Structures are given as C-alpha cells and as structure tokens.
Amino acid sequence: MMLALVGMLLLQMGAATRAIHDYNVYHPYTEIDSWMTGILIDNPDIVSIERYGQTYEKRDINLLRIGERTGAMKKVAWMDCGIHAREWISPAFCQYFIKQILQEYRVHGSRMAAMMKEMDFYVTPVLNVDGYIYSWLNGTRLWRKNRSPGTGSCSCYGTDLNRNFNVTWGTIGVSTNCCSETYGGTAALSSPEAASVTRYLEQRKADVLLFLTIHSYGQLILVPYGNPNLTAPNYGQLMKVGLAAAAEMKKVHGMSYRVGTSPDILYPNSGSSRDWARLAGIPYSFTFELRDNGTFGFELPEEQIQPACEEAYSGAMHIINHVHREQFNAAVSVATASLLGVLLATCVTVANNAF
Ligand SMILES: [Zn+2]
C-alpha cells in the first residue's frame, strides 16, 4: 500500500517534471531519452518503446510505437528523425509530431482517434544517436555522419548513413574517401544504424504504407529516386501528394517547399533510406528537408522551431491522411460496392418476378 502510494507520488512528480518539456528549444540526447520515457508513462494505453538496433558505439536505437492495441496486425506509418546529426530541427520535429498526434488522439471523435485504430505510428526521434550526441560537444556542432572509425589508412570518422542503404549503393553523389561528409561506408549497410532500420523494416514492410524521413535544410519534399536513371512506378502519384503537402505547408506560415526527386531539385545521390524504402516496396516514401533556405542552415534559431514544426506537421499530416484514406476508404468502397451488387441483384430478381 505504502509502496503503491510512493509509486503514485513518484509518477506524479515525474509527470510534473515532464510537463515542463519545452518543445521550443533543442534538447541534448539524455533529455530526449527521458522525454521518451515520460511519453510512455503518460500514455501507456497507446504508446510502447521498441529498441530495434544499436549504434556503432552500442547505444540503443529506439522508436515509439503509437496506436491502439487492437490485437490485429495493423498498417504502419514510419517516421525517423536525426539520421544526420547536425540537423537539430529534425529531432525537434519528431518530438513535436508525437506531442501533437497524442493530443489529437485524446480528442473524442477525432480523425486521429479513428486512424489509430487502424494504423500505428512508428517514430524514431533520433536515429543517429552517436552523431547527435557528438554534435552537442564543443566545436563539433556541424557533425553529420555516424561515429564509426575509418578503415585502413584513413583516420577520419563517420559514415554518411544516408548513403549507406542498399539501393544503387556507391554509384552517384557519394564519396569513397572516409574523410568526406558523404562517405558511403565500406559496403552497403556497413553501418549498424542503416542495417538496423533495414532489418527491422524488412520484416514489416508489407504493412508499412508510408516512410517519412526528416532532414534539414532547404525546404524540400523529395521523392524517389536519387539516381536519375531510376523512376518510381508511382512517381506521378508521389508528386501529386507531395505538391499537395507543400501547398498545405505554405498555408501555415507562407513558406515555400519545393517538390521533386533529388536529382531534379537538389543533387543526385545513392544509398538513401528514402530510395531504399521505395525499392523495398513501401509505396509512399518522402524526405522532408525542413527550414531554412541557408540563412542559418543547420543552426536554425530556436525561435523558428515552432513555426517550422507547425508547417511540417501540416505537410506530414496531409500525406498521412492521404495514405490512410487510400488504404482504408478503398477497403470500405469495395465492401460498399459488393453490398450494392447484392442489392442490385435482389432488385433485378424482384423486377423479373414482377414481370
Ligand atoms: Zn540530412
């Protein structure tokens, strides 16, 4: 009894501490980690934390799985943040996104509440944990890659995780020099981080409707593929949905986001997680490059966290709603169509009988 009381008090104290999590500042990894635990404690009915891999320096890579536990296999919307260490607005967005979807879920009768019965969100707030922690040390704010050491005679650190996935690996927009910012690693999936994402999603890809990976900066929505010789079979649909998302984003604070493949609007590249996800069969795959256009670059001031997150949320939700509607309303339409068929057949029978 006493222990239960103490436990309750500790929970309440924890809740009080968590209540001050400030979404308008950047947080070091230890704070994001505690925040994840807090989200779990506050929402045990719909949130679980899943460890699905380890970084080079043996830190856990965790995602928050958010959705109603129906007992059925559910569809999945994936989001990862912080694959590039210095893009601090990205983990800030994942925190904001989780706060928002949980708030909306708690509104009785909301679309989010309905959606979470059919679809789970798998959100990794920081994928490149080692790199993110390193970017918080003195003088290394602009670190991008993971923290694996170079091999052979190369003494630099880090593989660019977004050049290390197994899709046209090592072919274009990638470096073989381990000191380069875009060093693709010794082989596809040579980094434990990219290997963890791949292994995890390979098992679930049939249920994953959407893969959304969050970067900065440049204000872009990128669709597959980074290699100009490849075109996604649903390129037209990806562009249509991406352009509509950008239009929604513009409505929020007037900011323009361009939409296209990486070679068309940024630069060609290979080995990205977005391209791997599309090639693996996940139908909708996008990269968001958040604010800004280069004024502050990776060091986006904290005053811009909230507006950047608000507009990105609007774009992400446009895509999520589209993907969800397409999956589940289509199923409803099929059911309605067969019901109509039965009714029509009945009418025809009645009509025949009448004559
Ligand atoms: Zn990036």
TrEMBL record:
Residues 1-19 form the signal peptide. The active site is at E289. GO terms for biological process: proteolysis. Keywords: Signal. Pfam families: Peptidase_M14. Transmembrane segments: none annotated. Gene3D superfamilies: Zn peptidases (3.40.630.10). One of its GO terms (molecular function) is metallocarboxypeptidase activity. Residues 25-323 form the Peptidase M14 domain. Its cofactor is Zn(2+). GO terms for cellular component: extracellular space. Belongs to the peptidase M14 family. This is Carboxypeptidase O-like.
